Inverse folding.
């Protein structure tokens, strides 16, 4: 009897392994994700880096926010996540500056979702400096003088320039998009829908984690 049970257990292990292999094989370069010919450098800190290219004014980015927010909260310690606002037009540039100002002031996590909701639900444009200042004062208790200082700061302008350079290096033409370790590009079209983008991201995170550990 024990021998038969052992055989069943061995068969189950083989079945699970085969299933896992099939799951891994379903994501292929050139199909569910794109591989950049020239990877964009990421910080060499032993972590897997995931970046989200987005625009506050993009309805698709707003919809993705509901999916990606809980996913970000459950990322393991060896995965670093960062947003990179794209700047494909004047409104995009204004919202990118708003993003970096909020980050420099230390209130980005507090207001990021609120900015999306204000634009897409409450129909606020949040393009003007005064409107952005009033928003952070009301939502996060930021002092107006601190906002103005950050808005004109070298740090914000430098980060905007660096962010724009990364977006261009990613060679994307639209948002939202996820970039894993500076080399894999995922969008809703390639992944088969926004809900599947994170499945592909999880697969690539595991792939890069194994590469970093030498396995």
């Amino acid at each position: 009897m024990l021998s038969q049970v052992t055989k069943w257990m061995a068969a189950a292990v083989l079945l699970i392994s085969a299933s896992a292999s099939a799951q891994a094989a379903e994501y292929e370069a050139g199909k569910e994700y794109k591989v950049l010919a020239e990877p964009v450098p990421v910080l060499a800190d032993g972590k897997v880096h995931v970046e989200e290219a987005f625009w506050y004014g993009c309805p698709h980015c707003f919809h993705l926010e509901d999916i990606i927010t809980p996913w970000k909260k459950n990322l393991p310690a060896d995965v670093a996540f960062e947003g990179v606002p794209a700047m494909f037009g004047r409104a995009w540039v204004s919202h990118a500056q708003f993003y970096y100002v909020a980050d420099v002031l230390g209130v980005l996590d507090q207001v990021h979702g609120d900015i999306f909701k204000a634009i897409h639900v409450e129909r606020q444009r949040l393009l003007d400096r005064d409107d952005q200042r009033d928003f952070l004062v009301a939502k996060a208790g930021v002092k107006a003088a601190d906002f103005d200082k950050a808005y004109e700061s070298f740090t914000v302008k430098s980060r905007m320039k660096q962010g724009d350079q990364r977006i261009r290096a990613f060679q994307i033409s639209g948002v939202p998009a996820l970039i894993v370790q500076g080399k894999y590009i995922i969008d809703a079209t390639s992944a088969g829908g926004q809900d599947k983008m994170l499945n592909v991201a999880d697969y690539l995170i595991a792939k890069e984690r194994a590469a970093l550990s030498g396995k």
User: Anything to note?
Assistant: Confidence is low (pLDDT under 50) at residues 5-25.
